[in-house]
Structure formats: structure tokens, C-alpha cells
Design goal:
Layout lengths: L58 E5 L15 H7 L4 E3 L10 E3 L7 E2 L5 E5 L16 H13 L15 H5 L9 E5 L2 E5 L7 H5 L9 H7 L13 E7 L3 E6 L13 E5 L5 H9 L5 E3 L2 H8 L8 E14 L9 H10 L2 H8 L2 E2 L22 H10 L6 E8 L5 H12 L2 E8 L1 H8 L7 E7 L6 H8 L17 H11 L4 H18 L2 E13 L3 E2 L15 E2 L1
Parallel strand pairs: 1-10, 14-15, 14-16
Antiparallel strand pairs: 2-3, 4-5, 5-7, 6-7, 8-9, 9-10, 11-17, 12-16, 12-17, 13-17, 18-19
């Protein structure tokens, strides 16, 4: 296997800053918490709700903060709603923290049978799974095939690059053939995927929300309006969508999956995000869940009786500074290392309301090691490295950052660099063109960047950030750094099917990348919010954020 040159890299879509608690956009990242006396430590999470026993019935109101354009799993970013409407072949366990990263069968009857060469995945479906009313019929292998092929050929689909390793994908997207060569329906309850190269993380991509299985006849009935009339086999189904006001989900009477689906109804209040206003709505008893900004978190924590209803948890994402290895002076590893030593990450994290990050993987990503720390804050060492690289008097450069939002992180980085002699002029770029600018070779010598996981596997962190395949125009490797040694290490890891041995190889990659220093990880994120006294069983999920089926009304 090679790291494929035909990977459709992800910067081709305008990726939001995060899939936040309720799918908020880049400009509305709520619920970050500060590492201070008022905030808990990494690993603490859910509020102490759920004193009463779980039971069926009732409804809860969640503040969504925005209105989705679509609820078609192929085209929508509204992860929280989609995973409650649609089933995928596999899903993550409904538990908080690291336990929630375990993959389990959903529509599948068991984990896949993988061939010895790692290129064929045989998946058997559960019998008796039915779509929600009014379709009501059983889900079969033909539905899996239809939904996957629809994902690939839908004109608004942005996620096809995840599946370029399936045999025949490029030809199928180009219009060749009636069916995808690498997906075979063996019988009504069995499908087989054939890959070009081994990929132990392939099963993770089948658990992503846009692989939600849909009924062909329902899509045909609604056409483009399917986006406003979604229907799957998940724990809930769409009952009402009143534009600008609410989305109401009700329990799917046909659901037979793992989620208990306690609530009769989930109401999503659609509004522009306002942490202060939303907090007041919850205190007045109008809603049952709100995201919190740092300021409203501190405010709520100081109110008597509210602390046990607050929650927070780490979010698998990070802020980084990228250095373009194609451009002087960052083609010199000594300059890149100097930048790593120059930035005070503890202070950056406090400003961001996040956690200082000293390694490539953020907390929650497999491969992260809480005992590992690469670099530190040492301005004297930074100045020494600059002098060794031929810049005893410092240097001038440009730091690119997205405009239209808060620039305090870029300014903090600028100040730290100035203290060691790196005079970085900040250049703000409109958010809608920012990724295009960063992915254009020989354009941005330094850049602020934010990234969230697509799925919890370190391949999803290494491939888009640090490989040759992604170091192209419109690619996602915006440092344009790659190394043949890393390419070989990645090939070896992807051919390793023992989970512990594979993870050890990804930790070796992290050490190598950190030594070469194409990026400075600054801070990893957190999510937080407040629930009402009516909410039982609440927890924040590392992948799905909110799993309505596991909560109940007290």
C-alpha cells in the first residue's frame, strides 16, 4: 500500500470549526471552559442528574442554537439530530468518556469478518430491523447498497473522499456502471466491501452519520424535499419542522437498537446562539439544555444549587499554528523548533478557555499519552535556535488567521513570537476563503488552524495533516510538510491489525512529527453546558455529543 495520491482531501469543503454540541458553525463555538479554579480537571464530565430511575414518557427541550439547512444524512452537518433519526452499520457505545469510543454493531448483526489481507469486509445485518412509519418495512442489504451508492453520487455530497479506498469508487462517481464494484450484496442480509488497500479504520468510516441507511421509496417520494422529510430506522423520527421555531422528534415505534429511547418527544428550539439569553431561558424553566460560553459557565457555577447540573468534557479537537515547510524560513527545522519553544501554551489555553496541548494528538484521540510532553515554553532556547539557523537578529514573517471572529489567539501567538525576535504580521482572511488560501502552495508561511476529529482513529489525524497526498492545492496538509519516513511508517501501521501494536506505531509517528515540528499544537478543546432538574441520565458523548435516546425526564 502507498499513501494514495488520489485521496480527495477535505479542505475542498468549507469545514466548520467543529461539529459542536448541536452542529454550530465556526463562528458560534460555544461551551468552552477555562482551566482555572472554577473549572474541573480533564476527565470529569457529566452533571449528577438521574437520581430517579429511567422510565419512558415525557419530553425535553434542547436549545439547538441554529436551524439546519437539511436533514439528509448525505448533505447535513447536524450530527446530533441525524444520529437520532438514522441507523448506520456500526455505532459507538452510548457511554461517556473513552467508553463511548468503542464500536458496536448497529444495523450489523456483529463486527465484520475481515479477510486475512485486510481488504474484504463481510457484514451481516440484523433481521427484523424496520424503517420508521409510514415505510415500516424491514431494512435489507439492498438498502445498505442503495444508501452507500447514493452517498457517492449525490450532487451535494461532500464526504466521498472517506471512501476512495473502496474498489471502483472513482469510476462509480464518474458515472461508470449501475453499481459500485467494491460493494456486493451477497444475500438479503449480507453485504461485502472490497478495499484497494488495507485500512483498519474503515469500519470507523461506516459509523459516520452520512452512512445512515435510507429507504429508496421514501427518497423517491420526496425527491429533493427528502432533506426536509428525513426517515430512517433510528430511535427517533421527525414529527414536525417549523421553520425558525422548532424541530420536534418523536420516538420511532419500530426502533430495535441499543438506545433505550426513554423520551416520547425531543423538541429542538431553533434560535441564534446567545449563551446569556439561553441561560436565562433555562433558569426560567423554558428549556432543559443549553450550551454555555466560558462567561456563562462561570456565572452558572456561582449560582446556588446549579453546580451539580453543569457538565463539561474534553472535545477531540485542537488549535494549532502551522508552518509552511515550502517557504523560508520555515524550510529550516531549527526555525520550526524555535517557534515550538517560543509559544506559551499555558497562557494560550487560558485565553481560549481550553487545555494546553503538548503533543500532536488531543485528549480523547487514541494515541494520546497524558505523560508525554514535546517542547515547552523556553524563549531563551527559541532565540538560541534562531541564531543557530542564521537569524541572530530575528526575522519577519506573516501569520495568517481567519477574519470575522475573535483574533485573541493569533495576537497572543504574535506577542510570544515577538518576544524571541520573530516579527509576525497578522493577515486576516475572510472565513469563506480561508481554507482555499491556506491550501494554495507557497502562500501562507504561518497560519492559525483548528481541526476536529472525523472519527476516533489516529489515521484521521495523520493522513490529512502530514502526508504527501494531502500536501497539494486544495489539500488539507497546510504546512506542506511530509517525509518519506513518515509515509513508510503510515503504510506499516495500516498493515498492522493488532490494535495495541498499531497504536504503538502511531505513537512513534507522533514522536517523529513532533521532532520535525511542522505544527505547534496550542490547546485542545472542551464542551460544556447546563441541564435542567428535569433531565435524567445525561452524559456528553465524545463522538455524538448528545444522544437523546439515553436521557429521560425526571
Amino acid at each position: 500500500m502507498t499513501v494514495r495520491q488520489d485521496v480527495t482531501v477535505r479542505a475542498r469543503r468549507a469545514r466548520p470549526r467543529a461539529l459542536t454540541l448541536l452542529g454550530l458553525s465556526a463562528l458560534c463555538l460555544l461551551a468552552t471552559l477555562v482551566l482555572s479554579a472554577c473549572g474541573p480537571k480533564v476527565g470529569e464530565s457529566s452533571p449528577t442528574t438521574g437520581a430517579a430511575s429511567p422510565h419512558r414518557g415525557g419530553s425535553l427541550v434542547f436549545v439547538s442554537g441554529y436551524e439546519p439547512r437539511t436533514l439528509d444524512p448525505v448533505t447535513s452537518w447536524d450530527l446530533n439530530t441525524l444520529v437520532n433519526i438514522f441507523d448506520t452499520l456500526y455505532e459507538y457505545e452510548g457511554k461517556p468518556g473513552a467508553a463511548g469510543l468503542k464500536l458496536l454493531p448497529a444495523l450489523a448483526a456483529s463486527m465484520p469478518r475481515v479477510s486475512a489481507d485486510g481488504r474484504t469486509y463481510l457484514i451481516r445485518l440484523r433481521h427484523g430491523v424496520r424503517f420508521a412509519p409510514p415505510v415500516n418495512r424491514e431494512v435489507t442489504a439492498d438498502d445498505v447498497q442503495y444508501s452507500f451508492e447514493r452517498l457517492l453520487r449525490h450532487p451535494e455530497s461532500w464526504c466521498t473522499f472517506f471512501y476512495n479506498n473502496v474498489d471502483g469508487v472513482r469510476e462509480f462517481i464518474a458515472g461508470e456502471g449501475d453499481h459500485l464494484r467494491g460493494l456486493r450484496v451477497a444475500d438479503p442480509y449480507t453485504v461485502e466491501f472490497r478495499l484497494i488497500d488495507p485500512d483498519p479504520a474503515f469500519i470507523n468510516t461506516l459509523a459516520m452519520w452520512f452512512c445512515g441507511v435510507v429507504p429508496r421509496e421514501w427518497v423517491a417520494k420526496w425527491g429533493r424535499q427528502f432533506a426536509r422529510h428525513p426517515l430512517g430506522s433510528g430511535p427517533y423520527m421527525l414529527d414536525e419542522w417549523k421553520a425558525g421555531t422548532w424541530i420536534i422528534l418523536k420516538r420511532n415505534p419500530n426502533y430495535s437498537g441499543a438506545a433505550p429511547a426513554w423520551l416520547d418527544e425531543v423538541k429542538l428550539s431553533l434560535s441564534s446562539p446567545s449563551p446569556e439569553r439561553d441561560l436565562m431561558r433555562l433558569l426560567r424553566g423554558e428549556v432543559d439544555f443549553v450550551s454555555l460560553s466560558h462567561e456563562t459557565y462561570v456565572q452558572a457555577k456561582s449560582m446556588p444549587g446549579l453546580s451539580k447540573y453543569l457538565f463539561w468534557d474534553t472535545f477531540v479537537a485542537c488549535d494549532v499554528v502551522l508552518m509552511n515547510a515550502q517557504m523560508r524560513p520555515f524550510d529550516d527545522v531549527r526555525v520550526r523548533r524555535a517557534v515550538c519553544w517560543a509559544i506559551d501554551r499555558e497562557r494560550i489555553a487560558r485565553l481560549a478557555g481550553e487545555f494546553p496541548l503538548w503533543q500532536i494528538y488531543p485528549p480523547g484521540m487514541p494515541g494520546y499519552d497524558p505523560d508525554v510532553k514535546y517542547y515547552g515554553y523556553d524563549p531563551a532556547k527559541a532565540r538560541s535556535l534562531l541564531a543557530e539557523a542564521g537569524y541572530p537578529d530575528g526575522l519577519d514573517t506573516t501569520l495568517f488567521a481567519p477574519g470575522g471572529g475573535d483574533t485573541k489567539l493569533a495576537q497572543a501567538v504574535q506577542n510570544d513570537l515577538k518576544a524571541v525576535g520573530i516579527r509576525a504580521k497578522i493577515r486576516l482572511v475572510p472565513p469563506e476563503t480561508y481554507w482555499t488560501v491556506l491550501s494554495t502552495p507557497h502562500t501562507a508561511p504561518m497560519a492559525m488552524r483548528w481541526w476536529a476529529m472525523d472519527y476516533p482513529d489516529p489515521y484521521d489525524w495523520i493522513m490529512p495533516f502530514f502526508t504527501k497526498a494531502a500536501a497539494v492545492k486544495d489539500g488539507s496538509n497546510h504546512s506542506f510538510w511530509w517525509d518519506p519516513k513518515l509515509e513508510a511508517m503510515l503504510v506499516e501501521a495500516q498493515r498492522t491489525f493488532d490494535p495495541a501494536a498499531r497504536l504503538a506505531k502511531y505513537r512513534e509517528m507522533q514522536a517523529f512529527i513532533s521532532d520535525q515540528a511542522p505544527a505547534v499544537p496550542l490547546a485542545s478543546g472542551a464542551m460544556g453546558g447546563l441541564v435542567s432538574r428535569r433531565v435524567g441520565g445525561f452524559f456528553f458523548h465524545q463522538v455524538y455529543s448528545l444522544l437523546y435516546g439515553y436521557y429521560w425526564r425526571q
